[in-house]
Amino acid sequence: MRILTPVFVNRFAGHIMNIHPSLLPKYPGLHTHQRAIDAGDHAAGATVHFVTSDLDGGPAIIQAEVPINSGDTADILANRTLVQEHQIYPLAAQWFCKGRLTLNNGAPHLDGNALPETGFPFSTANTEQ
Questions:
Q1: Structural domain boundaries of the chain?
Q2: Which residues contact 82 (CB under 8 A, 6 or more apart)?
Q3: Is the bond preceding residue 25 a cis peptide, omega within 30 degrees?
Q4: What torsion, rounded to 10 degrees, do the Cα atoms 27, 28, 32, 34 define?
Q5: Contacts 24+ apart (CB under 8 A), 71-74
Q6: Does residue 33 have an active-site annotation?
Q7: Nearest-5° Cα angle at 35, 59 to 5
Q8: Tens digits of per-residue pLDDT, 53-106?
Q9: Residues 42, 68: contact at Cβ < 8 Å?
């Protein structure tokens, strides 16, 4: 992991995406899976977001939720989440490359429509977006 300088981030604002293994704004930073388990959350997930100078604080583009099952360890939850990460990051990149995803006045838009604050709610049912 590399934290980019504010100068770099500002130079490419709206053109840098990151994936984070939590349902942001919950659990920015490290050890996200263990933190979700320790908090007694029933779900965890991953978020693709635009990068800002705030660590894991940029506007959400898309989120995928996964259940936290009884007996899950951080490693088990991380593996379950990774499956979703491999679906949502390429999807967000595809939207961006096709010009469908933009950042307007600090808010992500898909096909000209503002996305919810938590981003597009991903499920396998809408993979053809």
A1: 6-126
A2: 21
A3: yes
A4: -50
A5: 72/37, 73/37, 74/31, 74/33, 74/34, 74/37
A6: no
A7: 40
A8: 999 999 999 999 999 999 999 999 999 999 999 999 999 999 999 999 999 999
A9: yes
Residue type, 22: S
Q: How many CA atoms are closer than 13 Å to the CA of 99, on its beta-carbon side?
A: 0
- Distance (Å, whole) CA 118 – CA 47: 8
Q: Are strands 113-114 and 120-122 parallel, antiparallel or unpaired?
A: unpaired
CATH number of 6-126: 3.40.50.170
CA separation (Å) from 71 to 12, 67, 68, 126? 42, 12, 9, 29
Q: Which of 15, 20, 33, 42 is catalytic?
A: 20
Q: Name the strand (E) or helix (H) holding 58.
A: none
